[in-house]
Amino acid sequence: MEIRNKFWEKYKLEDLTRDEWELLCDKCGFCCSYKEYYSDINILIYTDLACRQLNLENHQCKNYKLRFELEASCENFRDIINSTLHLYPDTCAYKLLSENKKIPYWHPLLTGSYENIVKIVREELRLNLISIDDISEDEKHLHIVKWVEYKK
């Protein structure tokens, strides 16, 4: 594992190693929540519905290495970051670094622990994810948390 000391303070996103990139993730789960894009009205809708692969206890992917094969909607964040970063929460470390800002005080890179991260993220983002398997197709519309105009 190649990790440089305080890399988040010294390097740009594009200069991070794969391991450093992974450590930037605060496990908020936002990437793993279902989103729906309506091209006719250019609106992106966010939900509080989590991908089937997301472990809701620790906000980690159950099948990280196979995620793209198992979930058609799973996107490689590193590939789409330039076009979608503005859509992510203001606490997102990737977004903050791209704007030359500091990561939040509660980020695991600063605290050294993921122990309370799911609780902290729920409080900070007010996003309490539930599994998409726990609701019916007819209930999906009840889980919309945000609409945004989509700009590429």
Structure write-up:
- This is YcgN family cysteine cluster protein.
- It comes from Acinetobacter seifertii.
- By secondary structure, this protein is an alpha+beta fold.
- The protein has one domain (7-149).
- The protein has helices at residues 7-10, 18-24, 67-70, 77-84, 93-98, 108-111, 117-125, and strands at 33-38, 43-50, 54-55, 60-61, 130-131, 144-149.
- The strands form two sheets. Strands 1, 2, 5 and 6 form a four-stranded mixed sheet that branches.
- Strand 1 (33-38) and strand 2 (43-50) form a beta hairpin.
- The protein is globular, with a radius of gyration of 16 Å.
Give a short overview:
The protein has 152 residues and is α+β, with helices and mostly antiparallel strands. It is 28% helix and 17% strand.
Overall shape:
globular
Mean pLDDT: 85
Distance between the termini: 34 Å
- Rg for CA atoms: 16 Å
**Portion in beta strands:** 15-25%
Spans of 5+ residues with little confidence (pLDDT < 50)?
A: none
Instruction: State the order of secondary-structure elements, H for helix, E for strand.
Output: HHEEEEHHHHHEE
Report the strand count.
6
Compute the number of structural domains.
1
Number of helices: 7
Structural class by sheet pairing and helices:
alpha+beta
Characterize the main sheet. 4 strands, mixed
Helix content: 25-40%
InterPro entries: UCP006173
Protein name: YcgN family cysteine cluster protein
